[in-house]
Write a structure and sequence with these properties.
Elements lengths: L8 H21 L3 E9 L2 E9 L2 E10 L13 H17 L5 E11 L5 E6 L13 H10 L7
Parallel strand pairs: 3-4
Antiparallel strand pairs: 1-2, 2-3, 4-5
């Protein structure tokens, strides 16, 4: 018999929204301007798109209220990286950007007493560490300077 608590979609969604709110507040305190929240281009989504100077960041937010599970950063799997890359590709075709492009992770964990600990992982990943084999994506990231040439 399993001793795991049943999955509560409402509680998990609430935690995710609260984490995104906290992440936006923290980014704004650090001087970032929030351009988009939960930007969608079906079937892809980016939690936060923010800009500071010439740096445009696509920010994935992971939140957790449980101390029993791995850090929220470990919840980001290969498919999520791939989907973020595709979402960014679509976003940049719609809203071109001439500065640096970055993929960040904001991790929010609730601690005892209701305190929230956040960690902002800047430049958490680059498209070239995914092993993507998509010529159109590879060409796009090479042109933006985010993918290093294989030569």
């Amino acid at each position: 018999m399993s001793t795991n608590k049943p999955f509560d979609l409402h509680k998990n969604k609430t935690t995710a929204v609260m984490g995104e709110n906290i992440a936006c507040e923290r980014l704004q305190r650090q001087g970032w301007h929030i351009l988009q929240r939960n930007w969608r281009s079906a079937p892809y989504e980016v939690d936060i798109i923010a800009i500071s100077g010439l740096v445009l960041a696509f920010v994935e937010v992971k939140s957790s209220r449980s101390l029993r599970h791995a850090e929220p950063a470990r919840q980001v799997k290969y498919r999520k990286f791939l989907n973020l890359s595709k979402a960014a590709y679509r976003y940049l075709h719609e809203f071109p950007h001439c500065g640096e492009i970055r993929f960040d992770l904001m991790e929010c964990r609730w601690r005892e007493g209701g305190l929230v600990e956040c960690c902002h992982w800047e430049d958490f990943w680059k498209p070239n560490n995914l092993g993507l084999k998509s010529p159109s994506l590879d060409s796009f990231w090479l042109n933006t300077g985010r993918l290093e040439s294989a030569t």
